[in-house]
Design goal:
By secondary structure, the chain is of the alpha/beta class. The chain has one domain: Divalent-metal-dependent TIM barrel enzymes (TIM Barrel, Alpha-Beta Barrel). It has 11 helices and 10 strands. It has helices spanning 27-36, 53-63, 82-91, 112-124, 142-151, 160-165, 170-176, 191-196, 200-205, 219-224, 247-269, and strands spanning 3-6, 41-43, 66-74, 97-102, 130-132, 155-159, 181-186, 188-189, 209-210, 232-235. The chain has an 8-stranded parallel beta barrel with strand order 1-2-3-4-5-6-7-10, surrounded by 5 helices. A two-stranded antiparallel ribbon has the order 8-9. Helix 5 (142-151) links the parallel strand 5 (130-132) and strand 6. It is globular.
Length: 271
């Protein structure tokens, strides 16, 4: 069964904004808006942002939401697994996936032994992790994803937007890696924004990730290759809140965009 979730990053709350930038909405508002838009769950966001333990459980329960997963960046191979351990503590008692991601930089190759070590730690705690290929890291291109899958037994989180931005084909990725998929992030991306920006970070901040159905990803074809997939589909449309007085208006527009994303899924692919 496919379930559809959102994530705090779609409302401007993630590792680079929480506690750093003004105009970042609080957890109660974000969870209210996720539930009001018709999503069934959420990802965790930065550790502690949504709370932990009974606080987190009660916040989700009041809104009828489930926890889909939790993103954690690691520098694989350096032996530092404290961020993963913190995330696993927060996930204790929840049916949610730890989502591993290379912290970069993108030069060089990811340490597969380090990935395997992190996977072993998660499994020892009763979790089955997935790995998120991601722009700006050592696992972003199709070839790098292939190397990861060939060299480890970790499941794959397939992200339609990040794969397209890295020069891949989201439809082909879903077709090729279908048997390793355990989690899906659905994104659309405007390649013109990417091509016009000097760096990936500039493109990302300029809104390369856009509303579903308004970019260059063949989303219909992508979902066609997911026939039989059972798991979470998480809508992500990364957004950085602006510092100005218009923050409330910008947030309101982003909230409506996430409601439109949910409607797009219902109307276009029947989810």
């Amino acid at each position: 069964m496919i379930r559809v979730a959102s994530a705090p990053v779609s409302y401007g709350a993630f590792e680079l904004t929480v506690g750093v930038l003004p105009n970042v909405p609080g957890p109660e508002q974000v969870l209210d808006e996720i539930a009001a838009a018709g999503y069934e769950g959420t990802e965790l966001g930065p550790p502690g942002y949504l709370g932990g333990g009974e606080t987190l459980r009660e916040r989700l329960r009041r809104r009828g939401l489930r926890l889909a997963g939790a993103f954690v960046e690691l520098r694989f191979g350096d032996g530092e697994l404290a961020p993963l351990e913190v995330t696993l503590e927060l996930l204790e008692g929840f049916d949610a996936q730890p989502i591993l991601c290379d912290k970069g930089p993108r030069d060089g190759e990811v340490d597969l032994g380090g990935v395997a070590h992190a996977v072993t730690l998660a499994r020892a705690r009763g979790f089955e992790p997935s790995f998120h290929h991601h722009m700006g890291t050592r696992v972003q291109t199709p070839a790098q994803i292939e190397r990861l899958l060939e060299g480890t037994d970790v499941a794959l989180l397939l992200d339609s937007g990040h794969l397209t931005a890295a020069g891949g084909d989201a439809v082909q990725g879903a077709r090729d890696w279908r048997d390793r998929l355990a989690h899906v992030h659905i994104k659309d991306v405007r390649l013109g924004v990417l091509e016009a920006a000097p760096t990936w970070e500039d493109a990302w901040r300029a809104g390369a990730f856009c509303e579903l159905g308004t970019g260059d990803v063949d989303l219909q074809g992508f979902f066609g290759e997911l026939d039989g997939y059972s798991g979470w589909i998480v809508v992500e449309q990364d957004w950085v809140p602006g510092p100005g007085a218009g923050g409330d208006d910008e947030l309101a527009a982003q909230i409506e965009a996430q409601a439109r994303n949910r409607r797009w899924l219902a109307e276009s692919v029947g989810l």
